[in-house]
Design a protein that fits this description.
Length: 245
C-alpha cells in the first residue's frame, strides 16, 4: 500500500475538489483564520452524503490555544457524538493541560465516546512540553495517529524529530507529518522519516465570483480553497514512490 495523502479543507467545495484530485482522506474544518474549528451541522450533514472517501472532521470549539474550559469540553463531547451519529469514520482532536502536557484524561474520554471511530491527535501536539513523552501519553489514550510538524512551523525543518517519533512509536500509532508539505518536498520527507501517511492543506486563496462590490469597500473578498494542481502533483509523486518500492 502506498503513502496515504490527507488534505485539510475548510469548506465542502474544497473537500470535493481535493477528493477529485486524488486525496485519500480529508480533514474537514471551518474558519481557516482560526486554524480550523468544528464544521457546522449543515456542512457535516451535507458532506457525508456526497462522498465515500474517509472524512475526519475536526472537533475544536474555537481557535487559539488547546486549553479548554469545562463548557468547551462539554461542547466537544456533543460535537463528537453528532459526528459519530452522522456516520463519519473518524475525527480529529487535541487537548493540552496548562503546563504543556497532553490532557490524557479528557483525550481518553473523547476516544471512548468515539467508539469505533479513528481519532487523530492534531497539531496541539506541536505545543506540548515534551514530544517523546507526549507520544507515549497519546498512545495510551487510544488515538490512532498524531498529526505533527515536528514542533516547528514547517515540517521540512524537523525531519530528525519526525523520524524519532516514528521509531519510538514502535507501530503503536501512526505519525503523520504536515505543515509545508508540497510536491517539491514530499519525497524527501517520506525518505527521511519512513512515514506511511502525510498531510497537506494545499491551501490557495481565490477571489470572490461576485460581479458587484461597492467601491466604498476597498478590501477584495476572498475565500480559502485548495490548489487542485498541487494535490494532483503530490499524488503523482506518491504513486511514483509506490512503484519504486
Amino acid at each position: 500500500m502506498g503513502t496515504i495523502l490527507e488534505i485539510a479543507v475548510f469548506n465542502i467545495e474544497s473537500a470535493l475538489t481535493a477528493i477529485a484530485a486524488g486525496a485519500d482522506r480529508i480533514e474537514f474544518c471551518e474558519n481557516p483564520m482560526e486554524g480550523g474549528t468544528t464544521p457546522s451541522y449543515g456542512s457535516l450533514k451535507t458532506l457525508i452524503q456526497k462522498t465515500n472517501t474517509p472524512i475526519f472532521p475536526i472537533i475544536r470549539p474555537r481557535g487559539g490555544d488547546f486549553l479548554y474550559s469545562d463548557d468547551e469540553f462539554d461542547s466537544m463531547k456533543s460535537d463528537l457524538l453528532l459526528v459519530k451519529e452522522l456516520g463519519y469514520p473518524g475525527a480529529v482532536i487535541g487537548l493540552l493541560k496548562k503546563d504543556g502536557h497532553i490532557d490524557t484524561n479528557r483525550t481518553a474520554e473523547l476516544v471512548s465516546i468515539a467508539g469505533n471511530m479513528e481519532i487523530t491527535f492534531h497539531r496541539a501536539f506541536d505545543r506540548c512540553i515534551d514530544p517523546l513523552k507526549g507520544l507515549e501519553d497519546i498512545i495510551h489514550t487510544g488515538c490512532k495517529r498524531i498529526l505533527t510538524s515536528g514542533q516547528v512551523p514547517n515540517v521540512a525543518n524537523a525531519l530528525p524529530l519526525i523520524a524519532d517519533l516514528v521509531k519510538n512509536a514502535h507501530g503503536k500509532i501512526t505519525i503523520m507529518p504536515g505543515s509545508g508539505v508540497r510536491a517539491n518536498n514530499i519525497s524527501e520527507i517520506i525518505a527521511s522519516t519512513k512515514v506511511k501517511e502525510i498531510h497537506s492543506s494545499a491551501r490557495k486563496n481565490y477571489p470572490s465570483s461576485m460581479s458587484y462590490s461597492p467601491s466604498s469597500m476597498q478590501e477584495q473578498m476572498m475565500f480559502t480553497g485548495v490548489d487542485q494542481a498541487e494535490i494532483i502533483a503530490m499524488k503523482k509523486v506518491l504513486i511514483a514512490l509506490k512503484k519504486d518500492i
